[in-house]
TrEMBL record:
Keywords, alphabetical: Hydrolase
Molecular function GO terms recorded: hydrolase activity
Database matches in Gene3D superfamilies: Ribonuclease Z/Hydroxyacylglutathione hydrolase-like (3.60.15.10)
Organism classification: Bacteria, Pseudomonadati, Pseudomonadota, Alphaproteobacteria, Acetobacterales
Protein name per UniProt: Hydrolase
SUPFAM superfamilies reported for this sequence: Metallo-hydrolase/oxidoreductase
PANTHER family assigned to the protein according to its UniProt record, in alphabetical order: HYDROLASE C777.06C-RELATED, HYDROLASE C777.06C-RELATED-RELATED
């Protein structure tokens, strides 16, 4: 199994738009370190048969897929309905054209309802033969379901993301938890024994909707994965500083990072 990090930034990316002369807001991130350039958080999971699952489609999706030379996507899973995770849905039209078929979409019914409200045209019945709009086939999921998008064996679990729930997932030895600040015992139990866990870590100090470093390290003590990879990082989280100060077995993600899981 191969995981590609399309993006590992927060909702505003790094750098955020702004700055005295429009050069961007870098915070504590060194602008000369290319791994500090972070687009919005998303990953692709590729199984042994070559089929791929896209997890979230943020506003940077087109650039991300071109950068990683990923054209064939066989299913998409949405973790929650915030714009930095769904705003690139229109770009899925290009995927429809590449695979010449509607794209299966997995999400909770709440998220599907929000997607249908914002992108109603993408959910109309498709009569073919061309794709002048994205065409998605919905597969509603329940918290803690076992599902098989793109032929992958996925177990989903509930997370708390401030005022709303989000979905985490486990696929074999790999776990993914973007946009989370609380995990129940039931959800942590699904992650028990995971070897590589990619997890939200927006900043060093507490946050109302995202995990922070001490929270991640506390979860790590309970789960004891061999490898923890931080994602959804804000402008406080400089790549080089993190590499130099994090405990062994904990590291920051970067856009374009790939992980191979046996």
């Amino acid at each position: 199994m191969k995981i590609t990090v399309l993006g590992c930034g927060g909702s505003g990316g790094v750098p955020m738009v702004g700055g005295l002369h429009g050069e961007g807001i870098w915070g504590d991130c060194d602008p000369n370190e290319p791994r500090n350039v972070r687009t919005r958080s998303s990953i692709v999971i590729e199984g042994e048969d070559g089929r791929r699952l896209l997890v979230d489609s943020g506003p940077d999706l087109r650039t991300q897929l071109l950068r990683e030379r990923l054209a064939h996507i066989h299913a998409v899973l949405y973790t929650h309905e915030h714009s930095d995770h769904i705003a690139g849905l229109d770009e899925l039209r290009a995927i429809n054209r590449v695979i010449d078929a509607p794209l299966p979409l997995y999400a909770t019914q709440t998220v599907i309802n929000e997607l249908e409200a914002r992108f109603a045209y993408a959910f109309r019945p498709w009569t073919g033969p061309s794709f002048y709009r994205p065409v998605l086939e919905t597969h509603p999921v329940e918290t803690y379901d076992a599902i098989s998008p793109a032929g992958l064996n996925i177990r989903i679990f509930e997370q708390r993301h401030g005022r709303i729930p989000s979905l985490g997932l486990r696929c074999g030895k790999f776990g993914y938890s973007t946009d989370v600040e609380f995990l129940s015992d039931a959800s942590l139990a699904i992650l028990d024994g995971v070897e590589c866990w990619m997890v939200d870590c927006f900043q060093y100090g507490p946050h109302v909707a995202h995990a922070w470093l001490d929270q991640v390290l506390e979860w790590r003590e309970r789960l004891r994965p061999a490898r923890v990879i931080l994602t959804h990082m804000g402008p406080e989280m400089d790549y080089t500083t993190l590499r130099e100060t994090l405990p062994e077995g904990v590291e920051p993600a970067f856009d374009g990072m790939t992980i191979i899981i046996d």
